[in-house]
Amino acid sequence: MLFKPVQLHIPDGFLSTPVSIIGWVLLVVTVAVALRQTRGQLGERQIPLMGVLAAFIFAAQAINFPVAGGTSGHLLGGALAAIIMGPWAAVLIMTSVVAIQGLIFQDGGLLVMGWNILNMGVLTAFTGYFVYQLMRRLLGEGRNSLLAAGAVGAWLSVMVGALATAIQLGVSGTSPLGVALPAMAGVHALIGLGEAVITVGALTFLYAARRDLLSIGETAPGKASASWVGVGLGIALVVAAFSFAASPDPDGLERVAEDTGFLGRALEPVYNLFPDYTLPFISDPLVSGILAVILGTLIVFGAAFLLARVQGSRKAGA
Amino acid sequence: MLHIDLADHYQRGTSPIHRLDPRVKIVGTLLFILAATLLPPGSWAALAVLFLGSLGVAWQSRLGVTYALKRSFVVLPFALAAVTLPFTVPGATLAQVGAFVISVEGTVRFLSVLVKSWVSVQVALLLAVTTAFPDLLWALRELRVPRPLVSIISFMYRYMFVLADEALRLQRARAARSAQGQDPRRTGGSVLWRGRVAGGLVGNLTLRAFERSERIYNAMLARGFRGELKTLTPPTLTQFDRYALAGWVTFLAMASLIGFVFAR
Amino acid sequence: MHHTIEVQALQFAYPDGHTALRGVDLSIAPGEKVALVGPNGAGKSTLMLHLNGLLQAGAGAVSVCGLSIRAETLGQVRAAVGLVFQDPDDQLFSPTVFEDVAFGPLHMGLAEAEVRARVERALAAVGMGAYAQRVSHHLSVGEKKRIAIATVLSMSPEILVLDEPSAGLDPRARRGLIRLLSELPQTMLVSTHDLRLVAEVFPRTVIMDQGRVVADGPTARLLGDPALLDAHGLEPV
Questions:
Q1: Burial of C2 by CB count in 10 Å (0-12 exposed, 13-18 middle, 19+ buried)?
Q2: What is the mean pLDDT of the segment spanning A159-170?
Q3: Considering only CA atoms, which of A120, A33, A138 is closest in space to residue A79?
Q4: In chain B, whose CA is at the least distance from the CA of A10?
Q5: In Å, how far is A39's CA from the nearest CA of chain B?
Q6: Which domains are assigned to chain A?
Q7: Quick check: C38 and C231 in contact, CB under 8 A?
Q8: pLDDT of A144 strictly over 70
Q9: Given the DSSP bridges, would you call strands C159-163 and C81-84 parallel, antiparallel or unpaired?
Q10: Which ipTM was obtained for this model?
Q11: What CA dihedral angle connects B141, C82, C78 and C185, to 10 degrees?
Q12: Average confidence score pLDDT of chain B
């Protein structure tokens, strides 16, 4: 249960009314822009192509692979859709997917659907696309660069979606940020690996079978917007880390327990599961958790970067 | 293993709830969830009234009073997200378990979130069960959801089952090939390898989706599509629809009133 | 003489360089029912896409009901030629059967009352009158194939162009389809691998291979020529 991407489908009742309504407003604006942009990109094909690709993501989410102990790896698909089609098209695709899941299958609520779509569709698409494009530019052409960029983009897209979900739960007073952030980050650091592996598998197949498809996303509209979203997320992450570190009362939004000792104990099971995601030398688990996420991100980034470089040069040398 | 609930939940019927205009049902559902979400924590009386309301709808839909009740526990796993509230919200001590203090306020907030979510999903479920999805689509169009988006969702609805079937066939073919290993421990290879194979299926499915969308586009052109999707005008609201909506709104207003009067 | 379909020296190559048609000549008179057979890759589907203006001739000429196919005549051509694709899941792209059958007339710009009347007539013509409100993905292949034909009948076409109508049908559904094709009054060009269907329904047969028409004549004579069939990868009935 814990390792399905289900945690990101927030049901009704878990977000406060103002938070829910802000989500809808943001979504309406985003979808309006996405519709205009993809109409320009795809013309008359927009509707059938977006519709069938949305159906494809829905079906692809059902493909899974067993990991261990009854858990399995799944695809959320926002990053993959954005890498193939560009971020605005991916927004439409994921909006349809999440909307149908809520309307037909009660996967995620209706009043909170704005945020569910933003978390799983918009943030994943833009994060995945931005990271992918950035790494492609840094690593250069070639198969390994493509796969490394896809892996990191997919992993981070899930992380950003999960962290955003945690923040909404925190702001709504449903879960203290100090609990929700590290818990979501920890669990989705693993779930994101499944996302990365499947995304890489799909990109490997497409690179071999129809390389031309992978160039649709390169020329799609939304590069500039993706950069803004990427830069914005980066700044938000840094500001969040610093403000939490600087403030003696780590949560101004909600009355999180003052007793950090309690928090430490409450979080122990989480940390035991993911020992790599805490920094033992920082006593505040909240700050520790956030820093761990940032650090983990940088490490994954760096590792993928190095790997692609090494493999690339080996190939060039051979 | 493919676990999609391939059948949607829609149940044919001729009950008053089935016959109600889908626009009224969508708006009514959203208002219900809004009313539930707005209630202050601990509005047990109001939540009980809302719960009775959802039971009433279930009864009127002739699916059985407990139909939605039995299927509404899908939200429970997510309760994990709020489970720390009794420990983290400061307030009067309800109980002490070892070093953990369970506060009254925290428990009330936790249970409120749970009950709100639970009654909301019952009504959302009744909407899905009593309304054919094509009717929801035109209702969304009439409720000013952008037409191209509704059309995209309509195509998705038509093809998600088709592509899920293709995914199922691909996954079966993979299973048939990988079952040949002699050593049971080695069947299926490493986790990473299994993941890459699953990804390969996704890539394969991507190609099929692109090719299918091209064939569909041709089929649309062949029948006169020129870039703009046309639809027939939907039926108008009946007297019954208007009264039902008015009654429902009154009921929700009363429930909210109870919630805010009895709060604190 | 007015030919319903008139194809002259039609050539076509796909953008990837693959040459699909190398000079096809074909004329079909009003009311004729013609089978189009030949191995996969012979160019049958490519030819069919030209008859509806979905592909534009590389060289040569195509005219339908006296209209040469140009941007200005596309609307008329598509109303005159009912093209039914092989996979009914491509043909039926709307959520409900009604919406699918209504799609053609609606996009021809007809009034709503006329659209509804045409949907009813078209569904009745294929024996699917009770299916209007059904959801397409719940139907059997045989039902989908019939409704696919209804989606073009509602446009009142003069010509039906069908790609592999009997593929994937069980014997009973195939029997029903043969009866339906025999009863429909429209001019027909039907591509198929099902030579027994050809023998039962179509008086005239055209054999294509490697982008050319290699034989054209009475079905009985062509199907009775084992050497000809064998040369083009077809099996005698």
A1: exposed
A2: 92
A3: A120
A4: B78
A5: 9
A6: 17-216+223-309 (1.10.1760.20)
A7: no
A8: yes
A9: parallel
A10: 0.94
A11: -120
A12: 89
Contact between A56 and B163 under an 8 Å Cβ cutoff? The reply is: yes
**Token couple for C127:** 């024996």
Q: Report helix, strand or coil for B225.
A: coil
Cβ–Cβ under 8 Å, residues C39 and C45: no
Q: Which residues of B touch C89 (CB under 8 A)?
A: 159, 162, 212
- Name which of B133, B30, B147, B142 is nearest A24 in CA terms: B30
**C89 at the B interface (CB within 8 A)?**
yes
Q: Which of A255-259, B60-64, B229-233, C158-162 has the lowest mean pLDDT?
A: A255-259
pLDDT above 90 covers a percentage of chain C that reads: 89
Percent of chain B with pLDDT over 90: 65
Does residue C120 register a pLDDT over 90?
yes
Alpha-carbon span C152 to B223, nearest angstrom: 7
Look at residues A95, A119, A90, A173 and name the one whose alpha carbon lies nearest to residue A5: A119
The CA distance from B153 to the nearest CA of chain C, in Å, is 10
Q: Helix or strand or coil: residue A253? A: coil
Pairing state between β C33-37 and C187-191: parallel
Determine the pLDDT at residue B5.
46
The residues with which A65 forms a beta bridge, in sequence order, are A73
Average per-residue pLDDT for chain A: 79
Q: Cα dist. C52→A241, B215, C79, C159 in Å?
A: 62, 14, 9, 10
Among the partner residues B100, B151, B200, nearest to A205 by beta-carbon distance:
B200
Average pLDDT over residues A8-22: 93
The C-alpha atoms of residue A57 and residue A50 are separated, in whole angstroms, by 10
Superfamily for domain range C5-231: P-loop containing nucleotide triphosphate hydrolases (3.40.50.300)
* Sequence ranges of the domains in chain B: 16-131+236-261, 141-222
For residue A268, the one-letter residue type is E
Residue B136 near chain C (CB below 8 Å): no
| Model confidence band, residue B179 (pLDDT cutoffs 50, 70, 90) | low
Prediction pTM value: 0.88
Closest CA to C194 of C164, C218, C228: C164
3-state secondary structure of A274: coil
Please provide the size of chain B in residues: 264
Helices (H), A14-86: 17-42, 46-60, 78-85
What is the domain partition of chain C in residue ranges? 5-231
From A97, A46, C106, select the one nearest B148 (Cα to Cα): A46
Residue A64: predicted pLDDT: 82
